[in-house]
Amino acid sequence: MAGKSVVLSVDGISKRYRDLVFSNFTWEFPNSGMFVIKGPNGSGKSTLLRVLACMEPPDSGEVRLMGEVVRDYRAKVYHKYARVISFSFQEPALLPISVERNLQVPTLVDEGRLEEVIDALGLRKLLKSKATKISGGEKKRTDLARALSRKTPALLADEPLSFLDPEYVEVVTSLLREEAKQRLVIATTTGSDQLTDAADTVIDIMDYKRARQ
After folding, report:
1. Which residues contact 29 (CB under 8 A, 6 or more apart)?
2. Suppose 70 and one of 55, 62, 63, 187 were both cysteines; which one would form an S-S bond, judging by CB atoms 3.0 to 4.6 Å apart?
């Protein structure tokens, strides 16, 4: 990764709710490559990913996006960060409109790329269906298609293989691997699987579960 510019960097970030979620996490993420954060359910992977996505603040430490320190986490300014980061949620929250309209809602969509991922993810036959009526796996593929088609420097995906039928696990892994050639990809997973096999770097969140001296 030498010589690549840094899209996202964090220095000593920590997060605690009732218990410690993670502590003293420091990393520089370059402008391309696939990073996978692994750990068991409930270990804090999703929380860490939301902090990296500038959706919520760390309790301590510093987040920098495109070289700028992130200080304002209010929802009304998140659109500024969304120009840099596309996000796919572990549990998709789709609007009660058609799948097609859900795919058209995001900004910065590359229409050509959207058509490609619609076909790759088997969504063509679902475009006219109401998004709230489709299966969990179909909702997941719709949410992934939205994130994959946005032209942003970074793509963050929370448990992108969850809810998927087996036939789409390899498809999604390949799509993320393809994206990582051109932009930063950070994904989470519960353990060793296709994602960790495809990653350039695997980060074990359990290494950050206690304060380091």
Report:
1. 6, 7, 8, 9, 35, 52, 154, 184, 186
2. 63
